[in-house]
UniProtKB/TrEMBL annotation:
The keyword Methyltransferase applies. Transmembrane segments: none annotated. It comes from Halobacillus litoralis. The keyword Methyltransferase applies. Coiled coil: none annotated. Gene3D superfamilies: Vaccinia Virus protein VP39 (3.40.50.150). This is Methyltransferase domain-containing protein. GO terms for biological process: methylation. InterPro entries: Diverse_substrate_MTase, Methyltransf_11, SAM-dependent_MTases_sf. Keywords: Methyltransferase, Transferase. Residues 48-141 form the Methyltransferase type domain. Belongs to the methyltransferase superfamily. One of its GO terms (molecular function) is S-adenosylmethionine-dependent methyltransferase activity.
């Protein structure tokens, strides 16, 4: 099952590699500034950015850290990103699976992963690997879309994400992430949740070329129960969905293995 999922991820991201470099959601400067502010990286730090995608976080880290390793499961994506970031001399690019990182234990001071874990078949294995490659007192910063704690809203959210992007596996609830951190000796130092406004046309076209498929996703939004329309702030004008909002979780954890 997980091999199929990973192959889907590679297909989707190879096809849309440039869209992730250009995506307004992924290159949002306020996010990148917040990552630097929360992590306070220094020139002596060695950092790892997992599932780097368009490389926005890796680039931001490279301006402050000694070395940054940017990893992605998709070679095409990584190759494209490396071409865009030729001016950053201290970024190393490694094709790697987030659930089987090719690094020794305790290799990194800082690890980041942004808007990617919902594509991972085994979040448990991913967090175990993050904890393994972090040095003691090292910090991990994650930003990802999360499902509401309410089961019905959770189901609706993951259903529309999967319909729009077949490489989507599942967005976890914050309570599930906290449990994974606790189980791997990662202490939450700082966190926030916020609503993230999404322009519907841009979002749906990023992964779906076919108009019928795009329409099917739109209809799912239009037929949503009132509670879902309210929670996800679904905005319709002239019989079309213009925008909606999802929940995003930003968290920094610190490793304490003893």
């Amino acid at each position: 099952m997980s091999d199929d999922v990973k192959r889907h991820v590679q297909e989707v991201f190879s096809k849309n590699k440039q869209a992730y470099v250009d995506s307004s959601t992924h290159k949002k400067q306020s996010d990148l500034d917040a990552i630097i502010e929360w992590l306070e990286p220094s020139p002596s730090d060695k950092a790892l950015d997992i599932a780097t995608g368009g490389g926005h976080v890796a680039k931001a880290l490279s301006l402050h850290c000694g070395t940054v390793f940017a990893t992605d499961l998709t070679k095409d994506m990584l190759q494209n990103t490396a071409r865009h970031l030729t001016s950053q001399q201290n970024i190393e690019y490694v094709v790697a699976d987030a659930e089987q990182l090719p690094f020794l234990d305790g290799s990194f001071d800082l690890v980041t992963c942004r808007i990617a874990p919902h594509h991972f078949p085994s979040p448990h294995q991913f967090i175990k690997e993050v904890a393994r490659v972090l040095k003691d007192n090292g910090r991990f910063l994650m930003i990802d879309n999360v499902a509401p704690e309410d089961d019905a809203l959770d189901e609706f959210y993951n259903r529309f994400e999967k319909k729009r992007d077949y490489s989507h596996v599942r967005a976890l609830k914050i309570s599930e992430w906290k449990k994974l951190f606790r189980n791997n000796h990662l202490n939450v130092k700082k966190h926030l949740t916020r609503k993230k406004a999404m322009p519907f046309p841009d979002w749906v076209r990023r992964t779906l070329d076919n108009e019928e498929d795009q329409k099917a996703v739109e209809e799912l939004f239009q037929q949503a129960p009132a509670e879902a329309k309210s929670h996800f702030e679904i905005n319709e004008e002239n019989d079309h969905v213009q925008s909606f909002a999802i929940d995003e979780y930003m968290v920094v954890v610190e490793k304490h293995s003893s």
